[in-house]
Every structure is written in structure tokens, then in C-alpha cells.
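Query structure, 416 C-alpha cells:
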């Protein structure tokens, strides 16, 4: 299916390097299902619970300074754009999470499409006829499409639904049948796993780090629980990191001065030991392991961030996500370009059902609503751009700064 992006409403202003603006962050409304979702280990169950826990309420929380990467167009213009360091790609920030437009040079589009195909992604990239000039160079609209051959062997009702919607044979969940823009899962995890080519294949992604990979899982909390204890031990083993360790927290000494490293009792203890390293020590740890702002997914892989509620010092505005996923579809030098979904919620519908129904009828209706939310497909996915070289510009800094994960979270590079 030939897909093209809709034309711009207005031309891109001349890109300039501006002071970074104050942005208002948004997050999903958390509720009683949050705790259940945190504990869910089954990927399919987790997807349902996550939508119920997060929702898609575009509710503003107190403004937080989110340092943008790349160049920023004049803040007085609408919308602000993120522009790559090379001036070869740009994403408008017409929503707090990004924009529905991406412009790039033909070489970036072709490279993204080629590498997505090599990664067995279900997503491909077209160069549309929409064009504009960026720093004297012509850039073109990037139009993602569902790469049918990449998922032709997946015989799953959800996959069939997604394929039928994109073929124009079935309405999406907003009643659209003739839209030329690709339809995709609103759930961030399903969207990312579609980009990774593992959605509904029976396979799960894993976290990859400098100290080794995690076991496959659809829940990034599993990555955290597995890798922090291992990473603490690996970090202790480097002499260069000795200066960050604290006596009776990370090590003990006996009466003759022999040093014994403390072995984490469990993941929570390991995260407590990580927190005690101090700011400089935590950054050294992150770099040693390859997490947080040092996570840098390849094309066809994804970022995933998990909220760390049991890490010392955790605070939130009361509106937190369990996690977020973002599939990488292209790269422009040190900047990563992503395509992301944001979940819908059936919380208000469930609340209404509880007021008017009871017994088995209520249980059936809640089950129906949860399935509806879990399998929601529309065309409201967003492009975004993240830096990888400078502090404040990364996916980790951006999403942690938004407040949607409180002030403690871990970002992993997810692969298959």
C-alpha cells in the first residue's frame, strides 16, 4: 500500500539555535490497576493492564524544563521543531510527545527502510512527495507503512485486524477507512514490538547491555529486576569505580582490613545500592552498563523506560506510567528518530459500567472494555527525535524530565 504523509499546514521556519524552552509535560492517569500492572509478568496481560493503568488523558502537570536536543526553531513560531545536528531531519513538536510529521533527506529515509527490512520489522519507510527546504537542503516527508511481507506468516487475530485496517478493508477504532496514513496500535509496547517485528509472533524482546542481555520479556520491569543485581556486581569489579563505593553499603571490612563486597539480596536492594553511589557514581554506573542516557538502540530496536517506584527518593506528581516504549525507525548521525504509540484508556467507561451494571454482566462488560482498549488501533502515533551524545538530549532525559515516570526510572536498549 502506497502511504504518504499529509502536507504541512505551514512551512518550516529557519532553524536557529535557541535557548531551551519550558515545556508542559503530560502523563497518563494512574489508578488502582497500576499496582496490578506492575506485577504482571505475562506480556499480553501486561498490555491490557498497562492501558488501564496509564490511559491517554492529555492532562497537563506542572511545567518541567525539558532540554531539547538538536536545534530548536524559534519558540515564538508554532509549532517548535526539533532539528538534527546535521540539519538533515526535523520533527515538529505540535504535541508534548512529538509530532505527526518527520522530514529527512532521501539517504536517511532509504537507510531507515533498508535497515528496518534487515531487522525483519513490520514497518517500512516511504519518501513522500511532500518537501521543504531545511538549512538550504531539500528534505522530504517520511511516510511509514505496514510492510505486509514482514508479518505475512503471523496468523493472529490482532495482526489480521491491523493488516485489514491498513489495506482499507476494515475501519480503525476511530471509524476511519480511507485515510492514507498508516494505522498502528496505540499501545506503546505493541507499536514498538511491531517496529521490532516481534508483535504477536510468540517472541519477546530483551534488554541488551554492556554486561550482557536479559531474558526475553514484554515487561521492562523484568529487565530491571534481572540486570541491576548483575550490574552492581560487574560495577564493583572495576578498579576505576572504587572511589564511588561506600563502606557498609557497597563493601565491608574485617578487623585486619580485608574488603568484602556486599552482594545484593534482591533487585530492590541492588537499586538501593545503585542510588547510594551518588550522582557521579550513578552516571559512571550507567555508562559502564549502557543504560539510561547511554542506551542507544539500533534501527529496528527500541528504547524502553520502566518507572522505579522502589528506588530511594522516588517522587511523582501522581500521574505516572509503568513504562514507555519507542521504536527506532531511522538515525541521523547522533540523533535517533522514533515512531511511538500512546495508549488509550477505558477507565471512564469502566467507571460508568460499575454505576449501572453488576454481577456477571459487569464482569463481561469490563472484560470487553479492557480488550477494546488493549487492541485499539488508530493513526495518532507520533514521530520524535532524541540525541545520543549530550546530556539533556536523550530519550532518558526527555521522558524522565516530563514527569510521567516520577523522578526515578531506568531506560534500556531493547532488541530481539
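Result returned for the query:
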Amino acid at each position: 500500500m502506497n502511504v504518504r504523509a499529509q502536507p504541512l499546514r505551514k512551512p518550516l521556519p529557519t532553524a536557529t539555535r535557541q535557548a531551551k524552552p519550558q515545556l508542559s509535560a503530560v502523563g497518563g492517569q494512574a489508578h488502582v490497576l497500576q499496582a496490578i500492572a506492575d506485577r504482571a509478568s505475562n506480556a499480553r496481560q501486561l498490555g491490557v493492564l498497562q492501558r488501564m493503568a496509564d490511559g491517554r488523558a492529555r492532562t497537563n502537570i506542572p511545567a518541567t524544563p525539558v532540554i531539547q536536543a538538536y536545534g530548536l526553531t524559534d519558540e515564538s513560531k508554532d509549532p517548535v521543531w526539533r532539528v538534527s545536528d546535521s540539519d538533515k531531519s526535523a520533527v515538529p513538536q505540535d504535541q508534548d510527545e512529538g509530532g505527526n510529521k518527520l522530514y529527512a533527506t532521501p539517504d536517511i529515509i532509504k537507510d531507515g527502510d533498508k535497515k528496518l527490512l534487515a531487522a525483519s520489522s513490520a514497518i517500512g519507510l516511504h519518501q513522500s512527495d511532500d518537501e521543504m527546504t531545511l538549512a538550504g537542503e531539500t528534505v522530504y516527508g517520511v511516510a511509514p507503512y505496514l510492510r505486509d511481507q514482514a508479518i505475512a506468516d503471523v496468523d493472529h487475530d490482532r495482526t489480521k485486524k491491523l493488516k485489514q485496517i491498513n489495506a482499507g478493508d476494515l475501519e480503525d477504532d476511530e471509524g476511519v477507512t480511507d485515510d492514507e496514513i498508516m494505522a498502528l496500535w496505540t499501545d506503546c509496547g505493541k507499536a514498538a514490538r511491531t517496529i521490532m517485528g516481534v508483535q504477536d509472533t510468540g517472541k519477546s524482546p530483551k534488554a541488551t547491555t554492556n554486561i550482557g542481555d536479559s531474558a526475553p520479556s514484554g515487561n521492562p520491569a523484568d529487565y530491571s529486576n534481572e540486570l541491576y543485581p548483575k550490574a552492581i556486581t560487574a560495577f564493583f569489579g572495576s578498579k576505576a569505580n572504587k572511589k564511588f563505593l561506600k563502606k557498609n553499603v557497597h563493601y565491608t571490612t574485617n578487623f585486619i582490613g580485608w574488603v568484602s563486597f556486599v552482594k545484593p539480596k534482591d533487585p530492590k536492594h541492588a537499586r538501593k545500592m545503585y542510588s547510594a553511589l551518588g550522582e557521579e557514581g550513578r552516571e559512571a554506573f550507567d555508562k559502564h552498563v549502557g543504560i539510561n542516557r547511554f542506551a542507544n538502540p539500533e534501527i529496528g530496536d527500541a528504547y524502553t523506560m520502566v518507572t522505579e517506584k522502589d528506588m530511594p527518593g522516588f517522587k511523582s506528581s501522581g500521574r505516572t506510567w509503568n513504562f514507555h516504549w519507542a521504536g527506532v525507525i531511522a538515525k541521523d548521525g547522533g540523533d535517533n528518530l522514533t515512531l511511538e504509540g500512546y495508549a488509550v484508556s477505558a477507565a471512564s467507561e469502566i467507571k460508568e459500567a460499575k454505576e449501572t451494571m453488576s454481577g456477571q454482566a459487569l464482569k463481561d462488560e469490563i472484560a470487553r472494555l479492557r480488550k477494546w482498549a488493549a487492541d485499539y488501533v488508530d493513526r495518532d502515533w507520533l514521530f520524535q527525535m532524541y540525541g545520543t551524545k549530550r546530556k539533556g538530549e536523550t530519550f532518558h532525559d526527555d521522558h524522565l524530565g516530563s514527569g510521567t515516570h516520577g523522578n526515578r526510572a531506568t531506560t534500556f536498549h531493547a532488541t530481539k
